[in-house]
What does this fold into?
Amino acid sequence: MLPFKAHHLLVGNRHILPLPKLSSPQLQFLVGEIEKRGFVVRQEAGSVTATSQGPAVHLEQAGYCWSSKDPSDLILPLVPELLSFPKERVTAMEFSQMYFSAFLADGVPSVKARPRLEAASNWAKLRAIGDCGLTPDERLAASSLVGSADLVGPLVTDFPTDESSSMFIGRRMYFQSVVPGPEAGTALREVGEMKRRNCYVPRDGVFRNFGPSLMMECSSEVASEAGEWCFLRPE
It folds into this structure.
């Protein structure tokens, strides 16, 4: 079971705190506590914006908080009580879709990972500063998906393989590499760590040649092992 550990990321001008995937009661608990501290709160579809005299604090039920000023003093004291909540039941499909979606990419069965932070512009910004925002539950999901495959890729790695091509993101050199599945599963980097050899989920999150049945198997493993990083569980 994965224990929660606090991490602080500075991505561009945003201070980001990865959080557990939150149940509805947890989100309402946070809203109530933030309001007690004098913030005016606006909620919309799993997103919360809290405003006071300083910069706004943004809270996402998907599992992170961000602001232009470090929100640690506001959010982290609430974490111990947050972790005492029971897990909320959702359907197996709802749970799976928090981590993956299945589709055809040019006719090829594919799975798209749905990480909190490791996507789009955040992905590039994190690579440029040599950091990583993949949370432990997301790493578990991705490594479970790719770990049994013969080859996975192309992935971005910080080490070359025989047929890698080099690339720069910011001033840092990376490689486009095809990696054996077990090695990719082991080398996937998560927030707060740096291994000797690291690889990263694709910027678009897409893993080709992976079908929906494997996606559901991986989701089942995540459900049993995510621990304090996810407060939802499949029925």
Observations:
- DSSP finds eight helices and 15 strands in the chain.
- The first helix runs from residue 24 to 36.
- The first strand starts at residue 9 and ends at 11.
- The radius of gyration is 18 Å.
